[in-house]
From TrEMBL:
PANTHER family: 2-KETO-3-DEOXY-L-RHAMNONATE ALDOLASE, SYNTHASE, PUTATIVE-RELATED. InterPro entries: Aldolase/citrate-lyase_domain, HpcH-HpaI_aldolase, Pyrv/PenolPyrv_kinase-like_dom, Pyrv_kinase-like_dom_sf. It comes from the Eukaryota. The keyword Lyase applies. Residues 12-181 form the HpcH/HpaI aldolase/citrate lyase domain. The keyword Metal-binding applies. Keywords: Lyase, Metal-binding. GO terms for cellular component: cytoplasm. One of its GO terms (molecular function) is metal ion binding. This is 5-keto-4-deoxy-D-glucarate aldolase.
Length: 270
């Protein structure tokens, strides 16, 4: 169970971390912040949850440096808009040390403290080989082209750990109404591309991730239970949704108080 951190706000990360979520999705793609803020959010999520909450960072594109920053912070990574085998290979190369997947990730000389935090979890291998396996790599398939190329991507890039079906972006790219990523959608071309996506991840036995909210207006417990039959990582809540609900609180309060109670400076007098 994962929550979506749509705001680059360290106090919110610190507030939510002790709640016991399995993971947090830090959206560095759509809520800009500097590297230090992203790194601090990752560290706070880990520290304040006592290691319970795994941080994922959606990086802003396929940039080699951004991928390295997120991995050096200690996060697993989410790569948006993967459409081709070549893009997937570039991502894996940026995320790996050594010859595995032609790794080009730079080994940070002092990110790990010698003889203190550079101890590999498997003493039969060196620390960089262990690090290759510690951070997970999730790709987002967010277009019809990406879905059609997914079989080739997973065949050529077996080190991809998780696949996210970005239904909102995919529908927009197909010139279909967004419908919050396909809620109730029944267009033939959409049903066809959705079936191809799921058939492909089943063929490769790859974990699938996505949104499945547990409460209205975007979900329900029943929809969450249905999603859990397929999803390995379920993003089922979001800071922005709960903050957005404050607008409804304001409307309810105004209706309850009425126009007289909203006048300033009258101290309740007519």
């Amino acid at each position: 169970m994962c929550y979506y951190a749509g705001l680059s706000a360290l106090p919110i990360t610190r507030f939510l971390a002790p709640m016991g979520y399995d993971a947090v999705w830090i959206d560095w793609e759509h809520t800009s912040c500097n590297v230090e803020t992203m790194t601090s959010m990752v560290h706070e999520a880990i520290f304040m949850s006592q290691g319970r909450t795994i941080p994922w960072v959606r990086v802003p594109g396929h940039d080699h440096a951004a991928i390295g920053y997120a991995l050096d912070a200690g996060a697993s990574i989410v790569i948006p808009q993967v459409e081709t085998v070549e893009e997937a290979k570039h991502v894996l190369s940026s995320a790996k040390f050594g010859t595995k997947q032609r790794g080009t990730r730079s080994a940070p000389p002092f990110r790990l403290i010698p003889f203190l935090t550079d101890t590999p979890y498997d003493p039969s291998r060196d620390v960089h080989k262990c690090l290759n396996d510690q951070a997970a790599i999730m790709i987002q398939i967010e277009s019809a082209e990406g879905v059609r190329n997914l079989d080739a991507i997973l065949t050529e890039c077996p080190d991809i750990d998780v696949v996210w079906f970005g239904t909102l972006d995919c529908r927009v790219s197909m010139n279909l109404e967004a419908k919050m990523g396909g809620m109730g959608a029944d267009e033939p071309e959409w049903l066809e591309i959705s079936k191809l996506f799921f058939d492909t991840i089943d063929k490769h036995d790859k974990p699938y991730a996505g949104f499945a909210f547990c409460a209205p207006p975007y979900g329900s417990p029943e929809k969450l239970r249905e999603a859990a039959k397929r999803m390995s990582l379920i993003t089922m809540s979001a800071d922005v949704l709960h903050l957005g609900a404050m607008a409804q609180d304001l409307m309810t309060a105004k209706e309850a108080v009425g126009p007289v109670g909203q006048k300033n400076g009258t101290n309740g007098k007519e």
